[in-house]
Write a structure and sequence with these properties.
This protein has 104 residues and is mainly α. It has one domain (3-8, 15-102). It contains five helices and two strands. It has helices at 40-50, 58-67, 71-82, 85-90, 92-102, and strands spanning 3-5, 19-21. The protein has a two-stranded parallel ribbon with strand order 1-2. Helix 1 (40-50) runs antiparallel to helix 2. The longest helix is centred in the last third of the chain and has 12 residues, at 71-82. The N and C termini lie far apart (34 Å).
């Protein structure tokens, strides 16, 4: 599976991917700038978690559809990811929000 993260940069016409993930701007302080330190899966998990989801279970449905993960697998990987210092350094507002939600 190929995962591309579009942060508004131009890509050559030949660069295509089967999955296009875009991190939203605004609510969590903008896009995550230093994503080069994370794996493609890590970036995909953060992209899914960063998007506003209107209904219950929407993140889990997207994780299954886009990454082939079960709901439990998605949350286990995401919880491990938000405890890593490099993730906190890259997206402190997103990580703080996800930790708050987890720790309720």
């Amino acid at each position: 599976m190929e995962i591309a993260l579009d942060l508004g940069r131009e890509r050559p016409p030949s660069a295509t991917s089967s999955l296009e993930l875009v991190l939203p701007q605004g609510r969590d302080g903008g896009t995550l700038a230093g994503l080069g330190e994370l794996s493609d899966l890590d970036r995909a998990l953060l992209a899914i978690a960063a998007e506003p989801h209107p209904g219950d279970g929407e993140q889990e449905r997207r994780a299954r559809a886009q990454l082939g993960l079960t709901a439990t697998g998605y949350h286990q990987l995401l919880n491990d990811l938000i405890d890593r210092p490099e993730t906190l350094a890259i997206g402190p507002l997103l990580v703080a929000r996800l930790r708050r939600l987890r720790d309720r």
